[in-house]
DNA sequence: AAATGACTAAAATAGTTTTTCGGTCATAAC
DNA sequence: GTTATGACCGAAAAACTATTTTAGTCATTT
């Protein structure tokens, strides 16, 4: 049973995590924002970490829904791949929380946050993997290991979105879609 | 003019950096190993950082030579790509210094070391870029941006060698060569 | 002119005290 | 009897201080 209080606590925690990060958030702070006693938090969540986990789990489910919605049955695989990853990226950008947590990993390396983001990455890879399996069955992609392929596609996307801009100028959505299609699907070997 | 002393200092520094890392190495230590007075180091190198830079610069030149030697004119591009990166990886594994410095970046994040390894990465990308340009001219690869292509190939190699093994079991030389060829050159789109 | 190591100022480290904070629990509210 | 609360506790972090280390200098030596 999801009580009114539990919802308030989750909202408060999300707000505080977004504003001050995981480490920077105290349980007193969360209690204050949620307007509940600190002890109340512990009737719904065993630990602070569990509170973060539950928030991220919820966000993960939401993200999976967004990715699924971005996919149009019948459209080519790469198109759907890009649409989905773009939708998720946009979602993450809108939710300040994700940005703040990524930052926290980079500059403080908070272990709990590293783990939680790693989980999201794994889930993303698994989602891509399932789509790749379908694409292979449908004959859209040729036989290949879906796990490695998903991993490499995801990494390439991240490399293009995050790492390339550190060296040169950042790329926009369409450029990235084009690049992934060019390298991954068509290949650059001369026929 | 390269004096005997300068060589001794470089050797001593390499040894100490390999053994204790950059932070863990003191100039007194280097002087002791090199059997010179500490002041002498400063007649050849302005700072400790400059000493590291010069060592890495030397190593970079050596690595470029090794990569160049691994390339066989006339062989297909991917084959040479893998041979070169494999030779360089092996070289780095043999030279304890590189391993130690990579470790130091991961666990302490020493800024000077981050920078110096970043430089090597950039140089590697530039080297690959030059080879890609040639391959395009020769008609072995079709038209593509050599800079982005080099960046992505390098990243894919690193992803496969370093990151994949964190999730699953590590891949051997030939598996990686095969994967790069499959994904990058041939593409996985059905014909 | 090249080499040296005692020296210095600044930074890192160790040691100590103070404060903060996750989590508990006796009590209160309902 | 169930849910909510905040004062309270011990452990961990932060602040502060004392101590040591060390990059770089420079007067002296070779």
Q: Which descriptors would you attach to this protein?
A:
mainly alpha, 77% helix, 9 helices, DNA-binding, homodimer, 191 residues
Assembly state? homodimer
Q: Give, in order, the helices and strands of chain A.
A: HHHHHHHHH
How many helices of chain A? The count is 9
Uncertain segments of chain A of ≥5 residues (pLDDT<50)? none
* Strand-pairing-aware structural class of chain A: mainly alpha
Rg for CA atoms of chain A: 19 Å
Write the layout of secondary structure elements.
2 copies of one chain form a homodimer.
Chain A (H helix, E strand, L loop, with lengths): L3 H17 L6 H8 L3 H7 L3 H23 L6 H18 L1 H12 L3 H27 L8 H22 L5 H14 L5
Helix pairs in contact in A: 1-2, 1-6, 2-3, 4-5, 4-7, 5-9, 6-7, 7-8
Chain A binds a DNA duplex (30 and 30 nucleotides) through α2 and α3.
Question: How would you sum up this structure, described in words?
Answer:
Two copies of one chain form a homodimer. With 191 residues, chain A is mainly α. In chain A, 77% of the residues lie in helices and 0% in strands. Chain A has nine helices and no strands. Chain A has helices spanning 4-20, 27-34, 38-44, 48-70, 77-94, 96-107, 111-137, 146-167, 173-186. Chain A starts with a helix and ends in a 5-residue tail after the last helix. The mean pLDDT of chain A is 91. Chains A and B meet through helix 8 and helix 9 of A and helix 8 and helix 9 of B.
